[in-house]
């Protein structure tokens, strides 16, 4: 089928089963092709091609609201709602189409996310609004088996049955999640997957009973017994415990069966969970065989070989891998260190730690809150926890890191991955707010290294420190061998590189871009003091005093945090000490920053190195 | 029994059942007496007297770890661990004994909380630490039926069975929570409560079957059927779905039965939930009869009449009630407004709203995350949500208010109750961090009124505003009739009261203390400009410009937020505009502030009005 011609999903209702199957095949091919050239989420999108077709066949979007949890699996939805051309030409590009649902892109995107586990709560909100406004459209939340065990999703499930009217929760169960699923609920789901379905068991049981004298009477008796009979036939009553109806499991690659099940759900009067079994990466062998989530979110790759383009870059490893190696070495030396991740073993490259320290590494699943509270008491019990977490997901842990860790002066170490601009994932994933919300949490240290040696030293002092210690690092690559300006690092220490001519122009720079700034200043022969601000908190007051009293200007170049981070801290220092230098703020704006590659985004914010050079030249 | 003589809980193991019952009675009397004179949590503590005795009889604290969720029900625990004298003489007093568990108070307090639903995660952490350190003590989390449905607790439950070793979760089910319990899980628990227990049903069923031919054979057959037989006898498998064992329900006021059940749990090899049914307020009639949570946390009261001492203060109502009245009036006028609370109907005095607008008011339970995500989509669905939440609990919603509301420019209104120092609840409940973490969230307004008229006007403009609007108000009382300095309020507008002599000393004050500051300045005949900073964000740059350029000093007096709130915003303004006034910071310190009454706490921080006056006099 010519996907370009699709304007909206109306046409689906006229297709027969064979045509729907053929459409699924075309869409699947196109997803593989586009993702191989643009990068993006592959496995999750290949898993829900048939499910998305079935949804748009049974329901009437945009009147009915289809909410994709996270939204990273909405490529088929984008194609079916008339966005094939944009999808093909600009997926995840700067000012192009987003990798997630976006309301401004289409009226068929009724909601937006990026973080997981929001869809059930969102469905609750739409449902309540419908009740108040007297509407009666269908509301469908499509959520994965790992997302549904997050606290937020469970709160939503718990609330759902209290509301009037009905929402449909489609549990997209691929037994996979970002990496492998964890936890008790996951075990229950896995039991259901391997069991026979509700309907067929029921019939078999009825047959068995009919062969026993009085068997049918007992069947009636059992049925009478407060309806608990149903629990004999299906292995779980998880969702019934949340006072919700349940059908499934259903083969998520069989469009016909799914259409049937979704119609049952459509006719239900009570909120209902439709349990659909899909296979992540379905239709692309390397992704199907992936056990570790390597094909979850990918860079460009060669479709025929399954090789990633970026794997050709030599001498460079990702920051995630570099940090993971540092922690690995420390874990060898110190048997008290335990690594905790909320479902990011692959994302933060923790595989080697989990393989070699199985007892001292824990994947708690998508449970960012639990990760911190658990780490706190683990320290009290005699271990030294290290939490590895993305900056954007750390937002879910604010209360726990404050109330359950900092308040009790518990010295856990936290590695903040993906700090700063993340690039193509865009506004929902930018790691830019953490410094702003962390620096008012009492008794914490916040640092960001410029290179590998710096990071290594920071981790060493972090595990010796007597309070919570945050180390931020960005998305992107790092050279393992790097120059070292100063061997002597202690808490709060910045580095200052003074120019020969005693310049009184001072540039304060954070993070790994520092080396590039140095290089650019050398190339441009700029006469200024370059200061590397290794710590966001505490500040290096010795250096600040020096530059504040030399009568010149200060430029704060922090591309890894909003202005409420370092810039405001320095403003506070200046006012407190009654200095009066001219200060130019080149921090990230207090805003939600769109997707695109790092350089394009920085340049659009006038925060790339050439913008810095221009500002600097204006001050000389 | 002479409670003063108790040094530790060892003696319990030698008491017989009658002696334990008599001890419970003595402890109960003492709790009623002490709370009636000191204020504190009454109902929750009366509910767990027998349970706490049973716990300390069966387990060996401090080797075994007993974690009380929230910790507000630990009075019996405090008495049994040798703190009766301090409990009696100094409960919740400044520098006295805390109303919660505190590690520095006793080795029997192995953990601390204040916020709900942390205990299961804490148990997980202790369990993992024991595994790594090769220890094998019992770990017990005591958690209420409403706390267990919070996302954090459910994340902990989900993780628990993945860990080696065993923890015991004692579900203290009083069907009550802070107010009434909500949600699907709560309905399930309520069904169990009203049903007969597992053991007795099982026996009855066996009897019934034995009367039917081949009945016993069927019993065996059913048993064989993958153990699903158990599901016939108990109404729930909620905890089994989390892969945990379950026993109960057990009468939580029968010490003997509880000791028996806890011994079963102690011998279990798998993590297990012990479901205990208690009655909140047990033993004190007014608290037993309380359906709305009036007796949850109380001020001083008369034991014989059940009357609260504070109810005698006339012409004053609580800030919570005043704000609730304002919202009530707005809900009459605007049918789109929907009020949402996370379990604080009584705490935030929302009873009248819930009674008169049953369809437009939602208690989501202890689900602060869900509250915000749901509110966001409810707005997209055509309603105008208002969330009423305590400042300290707003911490749990940081990610959702940022990612699911602000990011999509959704204009919900949020009333932040208990902003600032909360008094006797202490460090876990201080509402002091919200301005610091909210002001870096893009597109938000943060305001705090000085009086009733101000609050009314702020709520009016909040519901007209096109983005998220936070209105903070403190714990404490308010006079309904108050002076009004300025009728014309718009976003960002502060008030300035200039002195006749054209003073260049400028005092910027936030919140309801402003009137008292005015009064004190008049009494002391102080010559200064008093500025009321109604908005934390945005600032009134017109007024700031005026006072920054008049060459004098600025004192920032903000007793409702840490310095990363208003003080840092003003520092940023000053540096950005290259002013150089002398600025004195009288904001709350970046610290966890201890319990005690408001004046004592402020005075200890040198932030009471006399301290301000002294600072001001030093500047004249």
List keywords for this structure.
homodimer; alpha/beta; seven-stranded mixed sheet; 23 strands; 40% helix; 17% strand
Please tell me about this protein's structure.
- The structure is a homodimer of 620-residue chains.
- Chain A contains 26 helices and 23 strands.
- Chain A has 620 residues and is an alpha/beta fold.
- The first copy, chain A, has a seven-stranded mixed sheet with strand order 12-11-13-14-16-15-21, with helices on both faces. A five-stranded parallel sheet of chain A has the order 2-3-4-6-5, sandwiched between helices.
- In chain A, helix 13 links the parallel strand 5 (245-251) and strand 6.
- In chain A, helix 6 runs parallel beside helix 7 (151-160) and helix 17 packs parallel to helix 19 (398-405).
- At the A-B interface, helix 6, helix 7, helix 8, helix 10 and helix 12 of A face helix 6, helix 7, helix 8, helix 10 and helix 11 of B.
Give me a quick take on this structure.
The first copy, chain A, has 620 residues and is of the alpha/beta class.
Counted by DSSP, the helix tally of chain A is 26
Structural class of chain A: alpha/beta
Largest sheet of chain A: 7 strands, mixed
Backbone CA Rg of chain A: 27 Å
What is the helical fraction of chain A, as a range of percent? 25-40%
Query: What is the molecular shape of chain A?
Result: globular
Distance between the termini of chain A: 62 Å
User: In total, how many beta strands of chain A?
Assistant: 23
Largest interface: A-B, 128 and 129 residues
Oligomer: homodimer
| Range of strand content of chain A | 15-25%
Main-sheet strand order of chain A equals 12-11-13-14-16-15-21
